Structure formats: C-alpha cells, structure tokens
Amino acid sequence: MKKQRENQCTQKTISLLSPLGTIQVSGCENGVHTIQILMDVAPAERSSGAPLSCVVNDSPAETSPELQRCVEWLQAYFSEPQTAGSLPLPAFHHPALQGDAFTSRVLHVLLKDVKFGETVSYKRLAEMAGNPRAVRAVGGAMRRNPVPLLIPCHRVISSSGQSGPYMSGKGDHLKQWLLTHERQRGEG
C-alpha cells in the first residue's frame, strides 16, 4: 500500500552545486524522498576562514515547501553548519523512514540523538535503537538511508574510531570531508 501511494506522488528534483559536487534532492508536496550525492567532482578544498556555498543549479519552476526547506537546510549546512541544527528539517516521504521497522528506528535515533560535530559507533547506535546485537543491521540501515546529510549517516563510525565506509565505500573521502567540515566549523 505505502509503495503504491509513493508512486502516485508527483516528484520534482532540484540540483545543487555543493562543496561535495552535485547534490540532487527529490521530493513531492508531502516531503523529501531522496538526496543523492553524485560525486561528479572532488570535494572542495577547505580553507579555515573561507565560506563554502551550496547553490541551486537546476530547479523546476514550482517546488514544494518541503523541498525548499531542504534546500535552505543544505545551504546553511555548507555555509554556516553550526546553524543548520536550529533550522526546521523538511518532512520525509520515503518508505524506509515510515513505520517502526528497525531501519526506520535507527535512522530516527541517529537524527534525534547524534548532534552536529558528534560521532557514534555502529555498536552504540544499535544499543540506542534498542537492539545491542544488531550492529550489522545498523550498517545496513546506513546503506539504505535515503536522505544522507539530513540524517547524518556520515557521523557513524566503527568502534575502533576508524571512519568506516560511506556510500558503500565509494564515498569514504566525502565522509572524511563532512566530519572535518563539522569539526572545523563547530570550533569557529
């Protein structure tokens, strides 16, 4: 039933140019469905004082308030990341984020409890989500996160302190960039 309802959505996509490369945000009037980081360029070099930007590259004539809220959040995250936590998040409209499945629960706990500049281990996140033995399932939930950046799966690291894979291992350099971005901007 839920899948059928989602298929009836009229989705629109906004393309943003960010320090990570192109980011595509798709959603409908009910909320954001997905965020994709296309990895079409190397992450921007960070200099300590230089502001970073995230600008709209391509957008439909009309966008929903939820998509617009997502764009504003992403723009704040890159230019003034310490302020992003005070901005309202858009509504989410993706099956992985609905209901009480373990994936949904893990993603919501991560969103609510792991703040800007913090990290959490896969093991600790499994405990926080109510199943301390589900460490591998937490990894699976991170892989299925439809809205990276908004739900900060980049903040989940291994118990040894290593950053662990991001975007199925293809975006490990982006994870390092994001963690450094939050550390540097959180101090300033």
From TrEMBL:
InterPro entries: MethylDNA_cys_MeTrfase_AS (IPR001497), MethylDNA_cys_MeTrfase_DNA-bd (IPR014048), MethylDNA_cys_MeTrfase_DNAb (IPR036217), MethylG_MeTrfase_N (IPR008332), MGMT_N_sf (IPR036631), WH-like_DNA-bd_sf (IPR036388). One of its GO terms (molecular function) is metal ion binding. Keywords: DNA damage, DNA repair, DNA-binding, Metal-binding, Methyltransferase, Nucleus, Phosphoprotein, Transferase, Zinc. Residues 18-90 form the Methylguanine DNA methyltransferase ribonuclease-like domain. It comes from the Eukaryota. Residues 102-183 form the Methylated-DNA-[protein]-cysteine S-methyltransferase DNA binding domain. It is found in: Nucleus. It is an enzyme of class 2 (transferase). The keyword Methyltransferase applies. Its cofactor is Zn(2+). GO terms for biological process: DNA repair; methylation. Its main location: nucleus. It catalyses: a 6-O-methyl-2'-deoxyguanosine in DNA + L-cysteinyl-[protein] = S-methyl-L-cysteinyl-[protein] + a 2'-deoxyguanosine in DNA; a 4-O-methyl-thymidine in DNA + L-cysteinyl-[protein] = a thymidine in DNA + S-methyl-L-cysteinyl-[protein]. The keyword Phosphoprotein applies. Belongs to the MGMT family. Involved in the cellular defense against the biological effects of O6-methylguanine (O6-MeG) and O4-methylthymine (O4-MeT) in DNA. Repairs the methylated nucleobase in DNA by stoichiometrically transferring the methyl group to a cysteine residue in the enzyme. This is a suicide reaction: the enzyme is irreversibly inactivated. This is Methylated-DNA--protein-cysteine methyltransferase. It comes from Seriola lalandi dorsalis.
